[in-house]
Amino acid sequence: MIRVRFAPSPTGDLHVGGGRTALFNWLFARKNGGTFILRIEDTDGARNTEEAQRGIVKGLRWLGLDWDEGPEAGGPHGPYFQSQRKAIYDAYLARLEADGRVYTEENGAVRFKFSRTAITVHDLVCGDVTFAPTEEPDMTIRRPDGSYIFHFVNVVDDIEMKMTHVFRGEDHLSNTWKHIDLFNAFGATPPTYAHIPLILNPDGSKMSKRDAGSAIEHSYINEGFLPDAVFNYLAMLGWTPRADKEVLTRQELVQLFDPSEIHSANARFDMHKCQWFNAQFLRAMTPEALLDAARPFMESQGLVIADDAMAAAAVFSVKEKVSLLTEIPAWVHYFFREDYPFEADVSDKLKAKPENSGLLRAVAGVFAGLKEWTEASVHAAIEEAAKGASVKPGALMPLLRAALSGQSRGPGVSTIAHLVGRESTLRRIDRALAEVC
RNA sequence: GACCCCUUCGUCUAGCGGUUAGGACACAUCCCUUUCACGGAUGCGACACGAGUUCGAUUCUCGUAGGGGUCGCCA
Q1: A131 SS3 class
Q2: Which of A41, A73, A237, A348 has the most CB atoms lying inside 10 A of its own CB?
Q3: Nearest nucleotide, CA A279 to C1'
Q4: Are residues A186 and A59 in the same domain?
């Protein structure tokens, strides 16, 4: 039975690197019917807060990385907060003491005596990596105040929680021999390691907090990304599935996942490509799903949605024009209000020719006489009005678009008119004639 | 400084001794088109360097350079 874990320290917003580490663990567990565990490594009490932990949980939930054991999920190997496992660590320390593998310094810190033998890490990604007998000072595993250090609790918990595999960032590779030394001291078999490459900034520097695109909530949730798109992009940063396409669902990625295909070279983060994935998923959504996703961003911009069906159609009509949900309000705001501003180039266009007002009145006249108000009938009416005025529909469309939306770009003109309805369409034309032309 | 990992278009990558070195993003041009987009087509663009092994190296080995990481009483 495969058991893997994601073991973050609660530092606030989930970092993309951490998110991807969690993602690979999750992928491996789901692919093999294993168990995915969330363990909070909060041994450094000074800087770990409950609020910081909420950020981690929120980020994981948003990415859809559900855990089988851990905070809120429970499980037979808890507690899943290291700050609550002191008795277990004390017991393990006692074993080391009994075996003469530790010693206490004058100030009370406890150190683990390295075996000082060559140690080989068998890594799924990096292959066998052998470290020569170390010359480093013995490692501190307990502070004078009785709290324990990462390397120790990490190993103890991996033993206690029966981890079979450990997927973690490559920044841990250089320390892994210390962990194996500890596993050996406890007579335990180390898990199989897989050190995944790091995510770098576009300039090649290490990506850390504050760098663009580094925080799940701040850079993705709030910026209008879709979880599936970020999931897809992150999975393919350092791993290439054997598929003939790049846009893949969560289920497909689970099916395709193979840790031996994970690259060993670091990858630079490309926000452009991440947005491209987002655009792909956006376009594949149904009108209803798209509205659900866009609603908070629309409401935060003050748009009042009174009619869900109309709103869904409006949002759907601009879906291939945006790549982020945050861009949607600017493309659809006029569907939800009649006091939209006329952009500068739009009013210039309307004022440019004196005959424009006559053309708009002519269209309004035809609209007023229509028996039914469908997208097709509206479209036919516009063509009829153009014919009556001896101009091409292509000359009339931009004017109507300007009047109905205040913008020079957007979905089809007949789509706009149809969705806002006949009454609103006529009011909009009147307003444009009164205020602009 | 020591040790570890890494090195194909600007970016993500395919390649696992013989290829016109393929794809995606980005960029450029064209087509489509009532706008903005989408879509389609085309173009631009890479094997870090030096030895060696080999009939033949992007591919194997070694070295150099460059990038990243670790060496905490942080995780």
Answers
A1: strand
A2: A237
A3: B38
A4: yes
